[in-house]
Design goal:
33% helix; two-stranded antiparallel sheet; alpha/beta; TIM Barrel; 10 helices
Length: 337
C-alpha cells in the first residue's frame, strides 16, 4: 500500500447517542459485478489504509467473507474492535416478529462480531426481491408502506439495542411523510438515515428534515454509482462526474470529478460511503476528506446544480396496482397506498 490516511485527518460526526462515526466510509454493495472475495479484500485493504467505517448489509451476500477480513485485520493488530464502526441492515424478507433478531444474529455470526455499531432497516416495507433480479421483476406479495408494520420492525430494532447486540439503530430509504408517521412513536430515535445523495440528487428537504431531528444522513451513490446494476439504469439519468460544474471544480483542484463529489458530501455534512475494489480508488476516496476543501463559492455552485435525478428508483419493490416507482417516494407529500 502506497500510503495510509492518519486517523486524526479524518473528520468525525457525533450521533444523537453520543457515539462518533467517521465522516467517510467504505461501501460494500458490489455483488452484481464483483465477487464476495474481491469486496472482502477491499475491506481488508481499506482498513489497512485507514478506513474505520464499513457499510455492510445481509442482502449484499458477502458478510461472511467480510467477517474473515475483519477477523484478519484485528488478528494482525491492525485495529481493535473499538476502532471500527460497523454497519449492517435487515433485509425486507426478515420483517416478521422475531425475524429481525434472527437476521441481526446471523449478520453478527457472519461478520464475526459481538455487536454492531449501527443496524438499519434497509427498506421501509417487506417487499422482497431476489438479489440480482431484473428491473421488471415484481413480487405479487408486495404491499405499500404501513406505519404499523414498520413500527413492529422498529420495536425489534429497539430490542437489539436493549440486548447489547447493536449500539445504534437507523432507517434507510425513507421519505418525510413516512418519517413523520413513525418518529413520534419511536421509543429510541434513529441515529442515522441512509439515503441516496449525490450532486445531481441532493434531496435538500429530506436532508434538512433529518438534520433538524438530530438524525445523521449517510449518503449512498455519492459519486452517482457508475457501476450500479443494470436494473437501476434508465434513459435520462445524469452522470454526476460528467456535470460541467463538477468537472470545472475538479480541474481547478487538480483532482478527479469523483473526489469533488466526495469532498462536497463531507463538507455538506452527510457521510458518503463510496464503493470500490481498486486500492488506488478507495484510498483516494478516503484521502480526499482530509485537506484542500472546496470553497464556499464551489459549494454553492454544486448546490445550484441539483437536477433532482434519482438513480435508485426501487421499481422492483412496487406492489400490485402501483403505477410506477414514484409511488415509493411519496412525491406528492402523502404516503402512497
Amino acid at each position: 500500500m502506497k500510503y495510509t490516511v492518519p486517523q486524526e485527518e479524518i473528520p468525525r460526526r457525533r450521533l444523537n447517542t453520543g457515539d462518533e462515526i467517521p465522516a467517510v466510509g467504505l461501501g460494500t454493495f458490489g455483488s452484481d459485478r464483483y465477487s464476495a472475495a474481491q469486496v472482502a479484500e477491499a475491506v481488508y485493504g481499506g482498513i489497512r489504509g485507514g478506513y474505520r467505517l464499513i457499510d455492510c448489509a445481509a442482502v449484499y451476500q458477502n458478510e461472511a467473507e467480510i467477517g474473515l477480513a475483519l477477523e484478519r485485520a484485528m488478528g494482525e493488530g491492525m485495529v481493535s474492535r473499538e476502532d471500527l464502526f460497523l454497519v449492517s441492515k435487515v433485509w425486507n424478507d426478515m420483517h416478521e416478529e422475531g425475524q429481525v433478531l434472527a437476521a441481526c444474529r446471523k449478520s453478527l455470526r457472519d461478520l464475526r462480531l459481538r455487536y454492531l455499531d449501527l443496524y438499519l432497516v434497509h427498506w421501509p416495507f417487506p417487499n422482497y426481491h431476489a438479489p440480482g433480479c431484473g428491473g421488471d421483476s415484481r413480487n405479487p406479495d408486495s404491499r405499500p408502506f404501513s406505519a404499523g408494520e414498520f413500527l413492529s420492525v422498529w420495536r425489534q430494532c429497539e430490542q437489539l439495542v436493549e440486548e447489547g447486540l447493536v449500539r445504534n439503530i437507523g432507517m434507510s430509504n425513507m421519505t418525510i411523510p413516512k418519517l413523520q408517521a413513525v418518529l413520534p412513536q419511536c421509543r429510541i430515535q434513529p441515529a442515522a438515515l441512509e439515503m441516496e445523495l449525490h450532486p445531481s440528487f441532493q434531496q435538500p428537504e429530506l436532508f434538512r428534515f433529518a438534520v433538524e431531528h438530530g438524525i445523521q444522513p449517510i449518503g449512498y451513490c455519492p459519486i452517482g454509482s457508475p457501476s450500479r446494476p443494470e436494473r437501476d439504469r434508465a434513459s435520462g439519468d445524469i452522470a454526476d462526474m460528467e456535470m460541467p460544474e463538477i468537472r470545472e471544480i475538479a480541474e481547478r483542484h487538480g483532482i478527479s470529478p469523483a473526489l469533488v463529489c466526495l469532498k462536497w458530501a463531507v463538507q455538506r455534512g452527510q457521510i458518503p460511503i463510496p464503493f470500490s475494489v481498486a486500492e488506488e480508488q478507495y484510498m483516494e476516496n478516503l484521502r480526499c476528506a482530509a485537506g484542500d476543501p472546496l470553497t464556499e463559492e464551489e459549494m454553492g455552485k454544486i448546490q445550484r446544480a441539483d437536477k433532482n435525478c434519482r438513480l435508485i428508483k426501487g421499481q422492483v419493490f412496487l406492489w400490485p396496482g402501483a403505477e410506477d416507482w414514484r409511488a415509493l417516494w411519496d412525491m406528492d407529500g402523502t404516503i402512497a397506498q
